[in-house]
């Protein structure tokens, strides 16, 4: 039940901010880079699992309106660095691994309200939390697969340069996330 809720939550168009972040993380990669992308997505899952667990167990509490503002900020920062980045240097730790893990902490706080509402008054949260996180990881892999298949078609079939594809996708994600952040900032200032 919680596994299904996890993957459905991440692929839900109502929560497009999560889809945009995952797409921004993998925008610079092609199918041949699937191992690197798997590490990125796992780093994101670890990050959000930590804060999700801390929040669900009431160890950490941060204003939901602040988190809702910070989520699109994480998206446009990731997309912005995709746009300005130079070619990847093999063997060098890339900044996007940091983004995946650290920004996963922020996104985990965003998931926590939803999961808390599902758990209700349950006292044992370990199994539901694990199942929900595995579902989120599965949903993220579905999104990554879609983005990378699209990238493969665009780069390999239409012969668009990989850098041009990255610029297009990252710029679109940056614009959407910037507008989301501006809207949520207004809401944050009203509260």
Automatic annotation (TrEMBL):
One matching Pfam family: HupE_UreJ_2
Keyword Transmembrane in annotation: yes
Entry-linked InterPro entries: Put_HupE_UreJ
Keywords: Membrane, Transmembrane, Transmembrane helix
Superkingdom as given in the UniProt entry: Bacteria
Membrane-crossing segments per the record: 15-31, 38-56, 62-83, 95-115, 135-158, 165-182
Protein's name in the database: HupE/UreJ family protein
